[in-house]
Every structure is written in structure tokens, then in C-alpha cells.
Amino acid sequence: MKFQPDRSDAQTIHGYGPDWIGVDGEKHTQSLIVGSSGLLQPWSCSRFEELTPAHFEHLATLETELIIFGSGNRNRFPNPAWLQPLMARRLGLETMDTAAACRTYNILAGEGRNVVAALILETGT
């Protein structure tokens, strides 16, 4: 029996390391917002401590059903008050370290879900 990998039209994360995240064959060396529908943009924070309410206000404007938040090298939770814009739009947010967020994003995107990953890449730490 011949096995073939599943095929998906969704944008996928093909790898990650301490100083990079690979999306559809291209390496990125800064924090990113990645969407299964093709969204790919820099996210203006290089450490968890740089997050502000504005980062989550921006996420609330995205057309998605779920946001996977990669909090950097370890799992950390944002200030609950900052999540109000997401709750107002009934958007789910799941928090995990960035490596787990990359894996979880790929699984959900591969299932055809409309998902966004907001990934902090803590370089040089």
C-alpha cells in the first residue's frame, strides 16, 4: 500500500527553530501572524513583555474563528482585560508556547478550519 501525505490548500508552518519560523517554504526571523486563508504579516513584538492591549485589538479585527497565541519560549497568559475585544466578537483564543502553537495551527489548518496563529518569536533569548 502506498501512503501519500495529506494535501491542504491552507498556508502551513513547515518548521521552526530558536530564531526562525518557516511558512510555506520561506523562513521568517520575526514574530508573525499567520492565517490558514493566506494571511501572513509581521507582529510588532519580539518578547512577551512587549505585548500591549493594541496587539489583541488588532487580532480582534481579523476574520477568523479561532486564534492560536504562541507566547514565546514558554507558556504565558496575556492580561485578561486585553482580551475584551476578542470576547466582544466571540473569538476564541488558545494560549501555548510558540512551538506548540505552530503544531496546533497546522493541525487545525489541515482540517480546513479558519484559524490564525499569532506567534511571538523570541530571538536571542
Question: In words, what does this structure look like?
Answer:
This protein is α/β, with parallel strands linked by helices and 125 residues long. The protein has a five-stranded mixed beta sheet with strand order 5-4-8-6-7, with helices on one face. A three-stranded antiparallel beta sheet has the order 1-2-3, with helices on one face. The chain is built from three helices and eight strands. Mean pLDDT is 92; it is low at 1-5. The relative contact order is 0.26. Strand 4 (32-35) and strand 5 form a beta hairpin. It is globular and about 35 Å long. The longest helix has 13 residues, at 98-110. It has a single domain (20-119), classed as MTH938-like (Hypothetical Protein Mth938, Chain: A). Helix content is 21%, strand content 27%.
Topology (elements, then pairings):
Elements: E1 13-17, E2 20-23, E3 26-28, E4 32-35, E5 40-42, H1 53-60, E6 66-70, H2 84-88, E7 92-96, H3 98-110, E8 115-119
Parallel strand pairs: 6-7, 6-8
Antiparallel strand pairs: 1-2, 2-3, 4-5, 4-8
DSSP strand (E) fraction?
25-35%
**CATH homologous superfamily classification:** MTH938-like
> What is the CATH architecture assignment?
3-Layer(aba) Sandwich
The total of beta strands comes to 8
Q: Which word captures the global form?
A: globular
Low-confidence stretches: 1-5
CATH class: Alpha Beta
What would the CATH topology be? Hypothetical Protein Mth938, Chain: A
Overall average pLDDT: 92
Strand order of the largest sheet: 5-4-8-6-7
Radius of gyration: 14 Å
Main sheet specs: 5 strands, mixed
